Each structure stands twice: as C-alpha cells, then as structure tokens.
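Lab notebook, bench 4. Continuing the backlog of folding jobs that were queued last week. Each job is logged with the same field layout so the records can be merged later without manual cleanup. Today's entry covers Kynurenine--oxoglutarate transaminase 1, a 414-residue chain. Filled in by technician R.K.

JOB TYPE: sequence-to-structure
TARGET: Kynurenine--oxoglutarate transaminase 1
LENGTH: 414
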Amino acid sequence: QARRLEGVDKNIWVEFVKLAATYSTVNLGQGFPDFPPPDFLKEAFTRALSGEKHMLHQYTRAFGHPPLVKILAQLFGKLLGRELDPMTNVMVTVGAYQALFCCFQAFVDEGDEVIIIEPFFDCYEPMVKMAGGTPVFIPLRPKAPKDGKLMSSADWQLDPAELASKFSERTKAIVLNSPNNPLGKVFSREELELIADLCVKHDALCISDEVYEWLVYDGKEHVRIASLRGMWDRTVSIGSAGKTFSVTGWKVGWTVGPNRLLQHLRTMHQNSVYHCATAAQEVVAQGFQREFERYGKPDSYFVQLPKEMQQKRDQLVQSLVAVGMKPIIPEGTYFLVADISEFKSDVPDVPNSDEPYDSRFAKWMVKNKVNASALFHRIYHGVFVPSLLAVLIRASSGGNTTSGQRPHPDPVLV
Ligand code: PMP
Ligand code: GLN
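JOB STATUS: finished
OUTPUT FIELD FOLLOWS
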C-alpha cells in the first residue's frame, strides 16, 4: 500500500449506503433527489442516445465536450461579469468530486496547508492528505439561539480573528463551500469579502465548491467569490450537473477559472481520467442552453427547483420539531442539521467504544426505527457538533418517507 493511502481508508458513504441497503431504510444521508429529473433533460438524453449523432457514443474533447464548455463559458461569463474562453477557462470533470481531486493534486505540495471550514463535505480532508498537504480547520461557530426561535444556518459564523490566525506563509489554499454541505449556510457577501481579503493578503488560492449554487432559499443571493475584487485570478469555481439538474448519477461536473490555474488541472486530468462521458455532456449542454435562454424567468428549472425544495425544507423542519429535535433551518442545499441532544437517554452506550453520539444515534435509528424515516449521520471533524445530525431534504410528497424503498436496488452498488 502506498503511503498516501494511510489513514484515508474509511469512507462514511461506503459505510452508510451499505447500512441503508442492509436494513432497507431510506437513505437520508447521501445527497441525491428521489424525484425524477426535468422532462426536458430526459427527452434530450433519449434524443442523444437514439438520434443521428452517432459520434455522441465516441470520445470527445478531453477537457470538455465543445458544446458544453461553450455554454458554461457563456453562462458563467454572464454570472461573473467577464468574458470566458471556453477552451481555457472551463474544464469538464467526472462530477464535482473529480474537480476537487484535480485541484488538490494540481496545487498542493508536501508541507502546504489547506484551510477547511467546519462542518465540511467529508472528502476535502482525505483529498488534501493524499496530496501531501496538511488540513487546517476553522469552525463556523453557532450564536446562541434567540428565545424560543429555531436556529438558522446564518447563525453559524466565522470568527474573523480566528480565521485570520489560520493563514500563514504555509497556506496554499482555502476550501470554500457555499451553500455549505451540511449546514445549508449561504455565505453573505461580507463573509466572502473577509475570506477574499485574507486570500489576497496571503497570496492563497480559493477552491470554491459551489455545487448547490442554484439551491438557495428565502430569496437569498448566492454570491460567487470569483466575482469579488482580486479573486478571479486565484479561484477555481466548481459545479455539478448532478446537483444542478437532479441527475447525480450522471457525474458531470466542471471547473471555471483563470488559465494560469486551469492549465494545471488539465495536466492532472489528461494524466488520470482523460475525458468524460460524451452523451451525458451533450445533454447537460442542452440543459444549460435551455436555462441560459430562460435565466431568471418563472419557467426556469433554476427558479422552480429551489421553490419546490423550500417547501420540502419547511415540511422537514416541522416533522423534526414534532419528534423533539431542534432543526437548524438551512438557507440552501439538500441538507439540514438538527440538534438531537434530547434523545441521549434513548440511545444505548456502546461499551468500550469512543464512537461519537451522532454516529451511535444514526445507527440506532437505522436498526431500531426502520418504520420511521431513517436519519443518517455524517461525522465531521471537530467535536464541537457532537449532538448534531445531518439529514437530507428529499421527500417528494407529503413528507412520507416511510415506504422503506431502497436507495439502490442492488446492494452490490455499495
Ligand atoms: N461537493 C459537495 C459539497 C457535495 O455535496 C457533493 C456531492 N454530494 C460533491 C461536491 C460532489 O458532487 P458530484 O456528485 O458532482 O461529484
Ligand atoms: N454526494 C453525496 C453527498 O454529500 C455523497 C458523496 C459521495 O457520493 N461520495 O451527499
């Protein structure tokens, strides 16, 4: 075994997807919708597979199928307020996951530090370590809830002095994830400016994971850090068609950024994955073309999806309150974190184990409460959230997720 694999062998998804299949519970941990993708996308896929363009079954350009990089450059050019070159400012990846992996491999050397904001999407830490880097953690800290009110993800904030103290000459990059998985926090412009100023001051890169960019609720604005002063040149913005169009199984993602950074991502990509599924890229390009034409209009999927998801969020908040949890209302994403401290006496201790309470709680739910919605935990670095559980906003109707359908029909997929 190569040294780079030491300490990165455990994976929360592998463990819990398997548990979900074994106990036939609904998987509310892994971020994928239980409703179908939009018709326009399914129809485009059928056309792509059966149509005249048989070349869609063959290899395409390594760094992104031309129609896809063109429309991504057009759309993100508009959103970032600058002209983008589809060939050098955009690269398509196998999901946002590969985009993240390429970034850490391409920019992080032995001894480099990468700042990660807690709580965070689990893969950042092992990916930094595999590149030889050292993760440096900075927590979002909760403000005490106001009397009787539920907390919002906006109540979780960075302490500016604490954040500044994490930057040094060893800092290579900071990973930003807004909207944040799992809190659902949508960073405000002021919060992003704080991060941006520190990046500029310390000449650090920003790896900006924006896979939930369209899933923002209550009229909040998703601000792209690459659009802030001094940031374009040092930011790689990462997106996911899986999250954008509710097709997580297609694994189409992308990076957008300056050529000085993307050239290194291309080197990484051409020496590993080389290129991504052509037909899926073609269909995602058509989806974006449609959305580009309808941008901001009521029939845009980017307008409709968050509207529907916001209702589901509100239902889930009510259900969790009804069973005695204290949900933290997310401003965006599929996720919701809830305080489960009320249940401590119900969940048995595991003798001789230092397994944290959230993990024991989630397993107890899966094994003992299969007729209730199964809540799946994810462990985050840092002990400051020991009684918090992240669950997924997903129920497609009426909040009834008790039918026991399997997340994947075939446990081999685990
Ligand atoms: N970043 C975050 C924050 C995510 O939640 C996910 C998926 N859950 C990804 C990246 C990976 O996205 P993809 O499925 O496109 O690889
Ligand atoms: N994409 C999933 C999420 O957070 C899990 C990541 C994965 O599939 N490895 O929800």
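OBSERVATION: DSSP finds twelve helices and twelve strands in the chain.
SIGNED: R.K.
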